[in-house]
Amino acid sequence: MEAAVTAKDRNYFSGGLERMQTFLNSWGLNSPSSLALDTYPACTEAVSDFLIAGLCKISPPGTICEPDTFLPKVAANIAACNELAGLTHHSSGTPNGAP
Q1: pLDDT 10s digits, 17-51
Q2: Residue 21: Cβ within 10 Å count
Q3: Which positions ≥6 away from 4 have C-beta within 8 Å?
Q4: C-beta of residue 28 within 8 angstroms of C-beta of residue 34
Q5: Which entry of 1, 4, 87, 99 is 20 to 30 Å from 79 by CA?
Q6: Cα angle 50, 56, 60; round to 5
Q7: What are the CB-based long-range contacts (under 8 Å, 24+) for 54-59?
Q8: DSSP 93
Q9: Domain ranges in the chain?
Q10: Phi/psi of residue 95, each to 5°?
Q11: How far from 81 is each of 6, 51, 52, 96, CA to CA, in Å?
Q12: What are the backbone dihedrals phi and psi of residue 89, each rounded to the nearest 5 degrees, phi first?
């Protein structure tokens, strides 16, 4: 996603919402008891906010989100999710330095 942000490539995000929904559904988002999602709220929020964060970074401030408050919240959720998963958090904001 960072490459799409750097290139200001909005096309990257066009299929992103569908991919995110598919991923969340695979964890039981639409089931009556979404235990997997309820157990790891930081991870659920990180996934759901990931695309919004990318769009936020390439849009004028305040049009998609308030970058000063939203982006640190997303980074904190990613860090918490990485910690829960036992992954090392790097400054790139991705597990083990992944792109």
Answers
A1: 777 778 777 766 666 566 666 777 888 788 778 88
A2: 13
A3: 11, 12, 13, 54, 58
A4: yes
A5: 4
A6: 175
A7: 54/1, 54/4, 54/5, 54/12, 54/13, 54/16, 55/10, 55/13, 57/5, 58/4, 58/5, 58/8, 58/10
A8: S
A9: 2-85
A10: -60, 135
A11: 24, 16, 17, 13
A12: -90, 125
Q: Within 10 Å of residue 81's Cβ, how many Cβ atoms? A: 20
Question: What pLDDT is stored for residue 34 in this prediction?
Answer: 61
Q: Over the stretch 52-89, which tens digit does the pLDDT of each residue have? A: 888 888 888 888 888 899 999 999 988 888 888 777 54
The pair of three-digit structure tokens given for residue 80, joined into one six-digit string: 């918490």
